[in-house]
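Dear Dr. H.,

I hope your travels went smoothly. While you were away I took the liberty of generating a structure for the chain from your last submission, since the lab meeting agenda had it listed for discussion. I wanted you to have the full record in hand beforehand rather than looking at slides cold. The sequence, exactly as received, is reproduced here:
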Amino acid sequence: MSGALVRPMREDDLEACERLSSRAFLELDQRTYQRDWPEPTERPESRSQDWVRRSAHLLGTDAAGCWAAEVDGRIVGFATSLRRETLWVLASFAVRPGLQGRGIGRELLAAASQHSRGCLRGMLNASQDQQALRRYRLAGFDTLPQVVLWGRVDRGLIPVVDRVRDGGAADYDLMDSLDRRARGAAHGPDHEVLASQFHLLVLDHNTGQGYAWVDAKGGVACLAADNRRTAQRLMWAALAGSDPDVPVEVAHVSPANQWAMEVATAARLEIHPRGFLALRGMKDPMPYIPHSTLL
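The corresponding predicted structure, in token form, is as follows:
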């Protein structure tokens, strides 16, 4: 036993969990970042607020999948997870730096995994933390290496892309259909929280259908399409909206999604390994770029 009290997460835990998450991932980034990358920094205030908003959303939709660990009244770890149809997703998982290896993470993962009962599929984004990777492997997950695409986009390299438009709530049914084809389950209630943090692009034509949630810098935060060409057009449309002086980042590109690598090559973006996509009971989704926590 870890000596920690593992209990259901409460709304008044969110600020402490966000701070723990920020520090834990900063410590991991400092151990694993590449020397030619900018020095890792702690999560900025705007992203901290987004993290709290997403986690509050999960407490509302999936309270049974959200757990916290405390010692002497102090939060030392947490895990949040969600169920969407027959898919279980581990959204976020962290233990306070210095306390890893004491069984806290194992107990949190066991508690959150109870929320996966009856689910045919499982999905999560994993860092390069070796203890966490072992836990996921022992829980029956296959681990696939992912890459991040990064760099400034030369306007002269962007092709003309037509039929891509701004999306909205009227597109959610179409998006749910695309999600089911790509990953086996719709995002459903998650669209609203994604809409509060990203810009939506949609392509709905007889040649293909797809959508992309795009961040303020032009990076793709989540994308699903029914064919590779449509996925590429959406990614180019996202890059077209980027600032040429600010690097764009497209993370969580898995091996099946070589179409994204083709765009990165044409746009002269750098390609770097970063983290793993962990899957249970399912194939590598494509054409698909998963959201970092809502996958």
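Two observations you may find useful: The chain has eight helices and 13 strands. The helical segments are 14-32, 45-61, 104-113, 130-138, 172-183, 190-195, 228-240, 258-267.

With kind regards,
E. W.
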